[in-house]
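Recap from last week: sequence in, structure out.
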Amino acid sequence: MPVLTERHKAFAAAAITVLLWSSAFVAIRSAGEHYHPGALALGRLLAGSLVLLLVLLIRRERFPSRGAWPGILFSGVLWFGGYMVALNWGEQQVDAGTAALVVNVGPILMALLGGWLLKEGFPPRLLAGMAVSFTGAAVVGLSMSGSGEDSVLGVLLCLVAAATYAAGVVAQKPALRHGSALQITTFSCLTGTVACLPFSGELISGLSTAPASATLNMIYLGVFPTALAFTTWAYALARTTAGKMGATTYAAPALVVLMSWVLLGEVPALLTLAGGVLCLAGVAVSRSRPRRAAARRREPALAEVD
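Predicted structure tokens:
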């Protein structure tokens, strides 16, 4: 039976994250019709925090060390808090295709910030793969966009979501040197929950009027795309670069198209399918390794055999 390497485990964790974040598309569409953006973010974070705290107690993990807290607080406020509110609000102002197109600027910002602030560099394959994937995401977004004029406010909110997403990931990366993926995710989620407490009144009001299906979708968002997916994301991020993790998320538009087709009966156009294929192709390019690097890694093993 083959043994899974750290690289394989990290890729599997990233795949789980992208799959669950893609599934959030359907849940947000349902819950967002009955909950205000801030209330939906708070409800999602509360559900996620409860699950994460329970797992943390079962595993008997303690507080992360002092060095992790700047990253926890920064990513908690910006990514877990600000990103979710801005995205929920933005998707109420523009159609899903436009929102997906604008938010997909995030991975590009992530690669640029990671290369600059985290000294990850700018590998040519990563940049080429992201260019292909962004083109695919643009095709998917434009093909799914409505015919009406987009709200300037909605586009700006989606840009804010992209920026806070990228900044939060780059802040989280150094924190993972001082704590486990579970620790960093749990306390970042709690930080985001505290930041969203001003929306408590809207959440209480929504709970009393929203149908059970919308509330269940909100809980689903908290348990799976938040508690589980953000933890697997942190696990993978600790074992690779922020740029590569950002590139991996470009598989999401393709998965969203497939899920909308299967779960919502929304048959995609040929242009949408072509965009999804481009997204996946770009991810493959960005995560590939040069042949020379692979050959160099094999040389020591061949030398030992000789």
